[in-house]
């Protein structure tokens, strides 16, 4: 996959240089704008391309455009500052620094929240299989600057890897404190109009019992985000459920490694 990257019509010299450097970094193809309309860029790219702007790369698809945003994590970070609970962090149950593997990074909100809210020294590795979405999220982790230095630092601490989690889990020799899955990103979330531009550029694959079994051999804890934990409980009756009583989001918690069959 070779992404076509260009700049906005009136991009400054600094932005043009940054765009070319970033295009080289992601292995894309840089196309000089030279007055080309969005319609012409659509023809040249086959429908999907990136416009690099002063605010970062913007992904254009037939359904709209998408750029990196901290909005989904911003509210949760503000709540953490106020001392309010975050059910995802409770599900992770990290009492000290450790290593988190986010298998379904998507827009990065959960990885950012974990990097910000978990004990100092915690490492977060984030995987994303979609090359189109991945380059935007990775740019945000590496380059987005927040007005609060601790938020920017949380972004920089995330290690992003463009890879299918099934391949990674079968290859990796690392052992994690938590392996996390958010299969909700692949289906219900994309029904929102805010995510319309991403509908055709993400991989819609349901999580399987085989993959969960594999994850349980590579982590002390596996956490799965879901609207209902019943389907997970049918496979793992000993799972623990974390989430608000009236919340539409729940977290299934499974103990891995030597703890997997203690319940």
UniProtKB/TrEMBL annotation:
PANTHER family: RIBOSOMAL RNA SMALL SUBUNIT METHYLTRANSFERASE J. This is SAM-dependent methyltransferase. GO terms for molecular function: rRNA (guanine-N2-)-methyltransferase activity. CDD domains: AdoMet_MTases. Gene3D superfamilies: Vaccinia Virus protein VP39. InterPro entries: 16SrRNA_methylTrfase_J, SAM-dependent_MTases_sf. It comes from the Bacteria.
